[in-house]
């Protein structure tokens, strides 16, 4: 991958120096995983940060035989940073939702880079604060109607990882169980709301590919902003 493309794809590196980017790319490792493959296992020691070049992954926590999806990440995002920053085992595992291409950078080299490049260090803190705010938003939405909560999830996925097309914004057609988990609603409510949204023409599920097209993001955003009365 070229330095310019690397910087444009990953917002973490928007302010990094060309020297930093060149060095990171020189020590990076490329990975490919098919859909359904575990990328990182729970309780494995953090030894690298992973950057999503293409595809979708889910971060989940295992409770006995049950798995709960905590987050869904797509192209341009990264994961694994928390385990290396606090030098502790990962509390979650990561599974590919679609075929995924990743770049990994070892923990030692990533930490060295943060110390050498203050701009990158600052940008890293900004993105971690943003994730914390997203977590806070989920708590704020806890008592909202299921439709409002699901609209928030869809808008966030579309704005963060969606691909703009003449038809609308395309995202992965994520399984209802995973959508329900990250939205904190039931699978039954998820199915009912998704069908209603499709009947309204706000979203459309492509039959030939695992793609969900958000056709009317303006209406979804309006729904996401509604407050229960």
Question: How would you describe this structure to a colleague?
Answer:
With 229 residues, the chain is of the alpha+beta class. It has two domains: 3-139, Jelly Rolls, CATH 2.60.120; 142-224, Winged helix-like DNA-binding domain superfamily/Winged helix DNA-binding domain (Arc Repressor Mutant, subunit A, Orthogonal Bundle). The protein is 44% helix and 24% strand. The chain has nine helices and twelve strands. The protein has helices spanning 3-9, 18-27, 81-85, 107-116, 118-140, 146-161, 176-183, 187-200, 217-224, and strands spanning 29-33, 38-40, 48-54, 57-63, 66-73, 78-79, 93-96, 100-106, 163-164, 169-172, 203-205, 211-214. The strands form three sheets. The protein has a four-stranded antiparallel β-sheet with strand order 1-8-3-6. Helix 6 packs across helix 7 and helix 6 (146-161) packs across helix 9. It is globular. The chain starts with a helix and ends in a 5-residue tail after the last helix. Residues 12-131 form the Cyclic nucleotide-binding domain. InterPro entries: cNMP-bd_dom (IPR000595), cNMP-bd_dom_sf (IPR018490), Env_Response_Regulators (IPR050397), HTH_CRP (IPR012318), RmlC-like_jellyroll (IPR014710), WH-like_DNA-bd_sf (IPR036388), WH_DNA-bd_sf (IPR036390). Keywords: DNA-binding, Transcription, Transcription regulation.
Quick description:
This is Crp/Fnr family transcriptional regulator. The chain is an alpha+beta fold and about 230 residues long.
